[in-house]
Amino acid sequence: MSEVRNVVIVGSGPAGYTAAIYAARAQLDPIIYEGSVTAGGALMNTTEVENFPGFTDGVMGPDLMDSMRKQAKRFGAELITDDIVEMDLAGDVKILKDGSGNTVKAKSVILATGSAYREIGLVNEKRLSGHGVSWCATCDGFFFRGQTIAVVGGGDSAVEEATFLTRFADKVVLIHRRGELRASKIMAERAKANPKIEFLWNTEVIDVLGADKVEGLQLRNTVDGTESERAFTGLFVAIGHIPRSELLVGQITLDNEGYVICEGRSTRTNLKGVFACGDLVDHTYRQAITAAGSGCAAALDAEKFLAH
Amino acid sequence: MATSKVTTATFDADVLKSSTPVLVDFWAEWCGPCRAVGPILEEISDEYGSKIKIVKLNTDEESAIAIKYGITSIPSMYVFVNGEVVKQMVGAKPKPALLKELESFLV
């Protein structure tokens, strides 16, 4: 393919789709690589989103993403359900390769690859993944009907997962390293009022126990160092995310946690014609609406770049 | 060859007694990653149907089998040869990654 596109968008959460909507309406004829199994991004594994403005009664995460996708399509964005596996972003013409071996060239690139689940980093966590260790409550909660399970984490995702899992589990124990939650107040209050949720404060998971499936956790008190074991049949890990910037290492300036660094309040990266938005750049806010906002900014920045 | 649906009633004949390797996709309607990997499995089935049979087991409808094989995450993709599980894959993966994992069955 020798055609050089105006803009290629990589990634398809609220940031990627919003960038596609704006770029398509600006008649930049964008092409968006949605990801072969990650299309729609992190919201595809959530349930109800209550705080996206404009949805009085809330909206299901996958439905919201489906609407954004259709909106991008309506304005003519070309949607490709594949991954970008290689990028050469340095030149005036950016060269990207997809998972099927096709190459696409573009004058500008909007990076919106989002983030991946953070793992605790235990050998047995990996070994028992799919055998009681899970990163997706909406996918796997069903298999823990009537059981006692643990959720590790203290942010919004951990609290949302714990609350969701009480639909299935008899008891959900939320294990958090600190003495208070980071989650938003409304979600924390809801979890605290839920009789099926127990809180284990100042506690970290140091090992996952079980031969073929999760049977328990080894825990350590972060205040006095006391170690203990407790029986669980499931462990849901919700300790945050890491930016999916592995393809950018060596090309784009990243901070020491792997987030893309943008110039000031813009979405401009260190490379001319390369813009970044969404969770890939955001340490702080990490909301659907802020991701969408930065996707919009990236499209406008790209439009301005292409006009010059 | 398109993928086919397997149930508790047909599991023995379609999977355990199959003469070719069988990949069983444990999935459910409400699971986003399952829906994402579904079309990829269809493609692999179309391209490599003579080497490996791909069947789908709905864990909502056939929970007894899912429990028997200790499924706690979906999608889980198990490969059966001569009635034994010889490979377990958990989670949706892009097509090239799946093909790599299945390499030894596709030659």
TrEMBL record, chain A:
GO terms for molecular function: thioredoxin-disulfide reductase (NADPH) activity. PROSITE patterns: PYRIDINE_REDOX_2. InterPro entries: FAD/NAD-bd_sf, FAD/NAD-binding_dom, Ferredoxin-NADP_redctase_2, Pyr_nucl-diS_OxRdtase_2_AS, Thioredox_Rdtase. One of its GO terms (cellular component) is cytoplasm. The keyword Nucleotide-binding does not apply. The keyword Transmembrane helix does not apply. Residues 6-295 form the FAD/NAD(P)-binding domain. Pfam families: Pyr_redox_2. Keywords: Disulfide bond, FAD, Flavoprotein, Oxidoreductase, Redox-active center. One of its GO terms (biological process) is removal of superoxide radicals. This is Unannotated protein. It comes from freshwater metagenome.
TrEMBL record, chain B:
GO terms for biological process: cell redox homeostasis. One of its GO terms (molecular function) is protein-disulfide reductase activity. The keyword Transport applies. The keyword Transport applies. It holds the Pfam family Thioredoxin. InterPro entries: Thioredoxin, Thioredoxin-like_sf, Thioredoxin_CS, Thioredoxin_domain. One of its GO terms (cellular component) is cytosol. Residues 1-107 form the Thioredoxin domain. Keywords: Disulfide bond, Electron transport, Redox-active center, Transport. This is Unannotated protein. It comes from freshwater metagenome.
